[in-house]
Amino acid sequence: MNPELIQAAADNPWMAIAPEIALAGLALLLLVAEIFLPKSKHGLVPSISVAGQLGILVGLLVNWNGASVGQPLFNGLLMPGAHTQFLRAFFVASSLLVSVLGVVALAKQKMPKVEFFVIVQVVSAAMMLLSQANHFVLMFVALETVTVGFYILVSYVRTNPLTLEAGLKYLITGALSSGLLLFGIVLLYGVAGNPTLPGSSADSMNFDALYGFLQANPGNFLASLGIVLVLSGVAFKIGAVPFQIWIPDVYQGAPTPVTAFLAVSSKAAGFAILLTLVNVFSPYAGLVATVIAIMAAATILFGNLAALTQHNVKRLLGLSGVSHAGYLLIGVLASLTVPVAASAIYFYLFAYLLASFAVFGVMTHVAGENDADQELDHYTDLAKTNPFLGGILAIGLGSLAGIPPLAGFMGKLLVFMTVFAAAGAPVGPLTAGCYYGLLGVAIVGVVISIYYYFGWIKAAYFDTWRAPLLEGETDPTPARTPVACWMRLTLGLLALASVVLGLYQGPVAGWLLLR
Amino acid sequence: MTVGLNEYLYLSAVLFAIGFLGVLVRKNTLIIYMCLELMLVASTVALVAFSRFNGTMDGNVFVFFILTVAAAEVAVGLAIIVALFRRRQTIEVGELNALKN
Predict the structure, then answer these.
(1) CB atoms within 10 A of CB B8
(2) Relative orientation angle of helices A161-192 and A207-216, to the nearest 10 degrees
(3) Fewer CB atoms < 10 Å away: N or C end of chain B?
(4) Cβ atoms A80, A71 nearer than 8 A
């Protein structure tokens, strides 16, 4: 090998991405463990995975100020931002919780189990890189690692035709959005590298160079087209209207832990990269603000109205997740003028992580062998037969709905407050009235969402009449899985954190908002 | 007539549009998959043309990344399609509608 290349590789600050390397290395270790451990010891692999991820999470928390904020790494491919360490911890925590849910859910399937943990960790490592991307090549490769990993995860239970159908739908819509995103990147690269235009750069896929070019050339047609295409590609990841068509089917068909992974990590990664891109595209703020405002209003209304009529709880959570993306989008709009809005969005996502995993944790215990078949009716008597799961469900759903003493309420409040502040300095063609209108739409959306979230709580807490079973009929409700004590601990901690973070935001909000 | 940047961009836009419309209109999963690949290839045509016109190598290098990603996507995608065909005996999107409320 060329000695100069070796020298260049050695000069790169590998330690700066140690958490990502550790997570991906742990994934490789699991594969090796599967080969060398005797078949009877394969049950150890999930434990190694969970323990390893806990170790990485603790390492991140101990090294909280370890990220080299604001310094371009690897020739400008990566640029850790003010929230990088928070996002890393977020993705590792989410990957850890997905693995924990995976242990419970995969026990019901006759499937190879090791690959699940491996892919979850590789995807999470790619998300951590994605959130620090400062260059289109790295962004595209990291995003595709995430997407291709999700193709496999969504269709993981390959004996179930519903899961495979969900996998195919995710594959087609995912590849379509990658195509749009890629064409947008190509247009931006081409136009920003054009040597005849002012502000052009030889390294035009770098975000800083692109920002400089956009500032020097307001109103360039190809650049505007590229921006719209890139934003649509990212809008697919977060499930914003009109790129939400895949959400209900894929959420329903995917194994429950993967649905949780899609709902929390994939959405958070989408918002992390969207916030970076909105900053880069800020010279075209008028265009970006218009696109985002229209998408946000449509997303909130569509998500909430479509969720009203759902009986399958996974579809319901998917569509309500669409509306959550809508609330966050108005936060992204606010971040164009009020930088602290980014912190509010991350706080919201953290509250969303706590509440979502509590609810998905309950779902994995209520679901039977067929993961796609999870109806509201299956929750009848849950609170009576299993008060612990009933309580966790109520806290999780209450937090998602934004009921005051819970964390979800504080998240919504912070985001809405930053939008209110941003209305003081409207961007481009938007007026202050547009911001107030969006807030009005969001508040109507929250009110609608309380109806369907409480319909679910009602199903779990109040008796509904059911026809007695005739002879020869089998109970359509799947048998509930007993809750193991470590799962009690996890779910209890998630619910407790949702309550505590609602009453006392001190450290988390303080740290985030100071950024 | 000399072939300049614009001709390549028109070609790329037309290929992209054919791929995009194909994904929306066609009903056979394999043809849809071919259309998706066509979209990626359309982007690489524009990328190489831009790279040549701008005099930077970044575009050419990016093409390798795109090809690698596309290969990974095809490997996973065809596996899913084959597994689905085994279970359902069809790959027509109109008949794949088991997931609903």
Answers:
(1) 18
(2) 60
(3) N
(4) yes
- In total, how many domains does chain B have? 1
Whether residue A242 has a cis bond before it, omega within 30° of 0 = yes
Chain B residues touching A152 at Cβ < 8 A: 76
Q: pLDDT tens across A429-455, in order?
A: 888 889 999 999 999 999 999 999 999
Burial class, A100, CB count within 10 angstroms (exposed 0-12 / middle 13-18 / buried 19+): buried
**Backbone region of residue A370 per phi and psi (left: phi > 0; alpha: psi in -120 to 50; beta: other values):** beta
pTM for the complete prediction?
0.94
Closest CA to B26 of B14, B42, B44, B38: B38
Residue A204 gets which letter from DSSP? Answer: T
Q: Which among A169, A194, A309 has the least Cβ separation from residue B101? A: A309
| A193, part of any domain | yes
ipTM of the complex: 0.95
Amino acid in the structure at residue B65? F
Residue type present at position A424: G
Q: Is B57 in contact with A203 (CB distance < 8 Å)?
A: no
**Residue B32 sits in which domain range?**
5-92
The tens digit of pLDDT for each residue in A464-495 reads 767 677 777 777 777 788 888 889 999 999 99
Separation between Cα atoms, residue A321 and residue A410, nearest integer Å: 17
Look up the CATH number of the domain holding residue B42: 1.10.287.3510
Residue A6 lies in a domain: no
CA distance A421 to chain B (A): 40
